[in-house]
């Protein structure tokens, strides 16, 4: 096979024109496909990444103040596609005032329930326990506090006797969430703390914090609303439809999410279609070109057999040419992609806010494109090489 490989290299030097044109044909097919894939990664990938990084993309918001029973809550939690769910309170109850201590000015904000797995919490952030809190950066800044400090949550109500009751909940700050995760003046609290706020506003006693009122045992079960998030972008639409089928009034970004996902699928389908058509045309052209080249050398290859060359030498002769064409074509295709991607990124990156490059390939893309193109060309060459094995040494003698 060494002899055949050497002869193949010499043949490439002699037929440089055929090799160059065949390699250019491969690059002409592969180059535009790489650019299309790069645009899909850059533009659509940026849109998808933006949605994935924004917890609001996964949120299903319940409108209205209708009570959700424990049975309904259990049914919702069991719906496929639920990524995070927990009870919530009404917007009026969620409003609270915060202070760094008894002598500090009050700051208005909102108290939200949270737990492990909350999409609002940065990965690795521990969920707050009873009488603990995670503050938004905006609220922490206005209070002038940081993680480890203590603050107060205050609410007032009118008692049945007309007097004003006041609830004061001391909290320890376990962490401060960045503004990109939790916007506005908000405190994320354990459900037990949030439930105490709701009970207080509803007029019930809260013994833990020394506040009297109606007997908590008389409090009807249920939640004003819930916090609900889908497990991933693909689940947003179906989960929204499931809530609507259960007669809940909800809103979500399902239309926006489904539009981006559809664009991603459509581009993937378009890429596959164009790649299939382009590859088929190139393979036919490559087969014809290499067949013609090998046919012109049939007499020479017969002479190689007559001089003791094996069928393996003839196969190596063809494979060397095929591999050379594949390497040259793939290298040229990536060069074309590099130039076009640079021009595209210089022109469009600024217009896609925060999206990064508008056209790029991942390491896996490069590996698959290079290895796949080379493998296909080599397989076609190997298919042609099978016919070379049938060349008999006597053919050159018959022609002589």
How much helical structure, as a percent, in the residues?
Answer: 40-55%
Mean pLDDT: 83
Radius of gyration, CA atoms, in whole angstroms? 35 Å
Helix/strand structural class: alpha+beta
In total, the number of strands is 10
Can you list the strand order of the major beta sheet? 3-4-8-5-7-6
Shape call: elongated
Task: Compute the number of helices.
Answer: 12
> Roughly what fraction of the amino acids lie in strands?
15-25%
Number of domains: 2
The major beta sheet can be summarized as: 6 strands, mixed, barrel
Order of helices and strands: HHEHEHEEEHEEEHEHEHHHHH
Set down the secondary structure blueprint.
Layout: H1 2-14, H2 16-53, E1 59-62, H3 70-77, E2 82-88, H4 91-94, E3 95-99, E4 107-113, E5 132-136, H5 137-143, E6 150-158, E7 164-177, E8 186-189, H6 191-201, E9 225-230, H7 233-245, E10 250-251, H8 254-296, H9 298-306, H10 311-348, H11 363-388, H12 394-399
Parallel strand pairs: 4-8, 5-7
Antiparallel strand pairs: 1-9, 1-10, 2-9, 3-4, 3-6, 5-8, 6-7
Concise structural overview:
By secondary structure, the chain is an alpha+beta fold.
Plain-language structure description:
Helix 2 (16-53) crosses helix 10 (311-348) and helix 8 (254-296) packs parallel to helix 11 (363-388). The model has no long low-confidence stretch (mean pLDDT 83). This protein has 12 helices and 10 strands. It is an alpha+beta fold and 400 residues long. The strands form 2 sheets. It has a 6-stranded mixed barrel with strand order 3-4-8-5-7-6. The two termini are 26 Å apart. The chain has 2 domains: 2-52 and 259-399, no CATH class; 58-253, no CATH class. The relative contact order is 0.18.
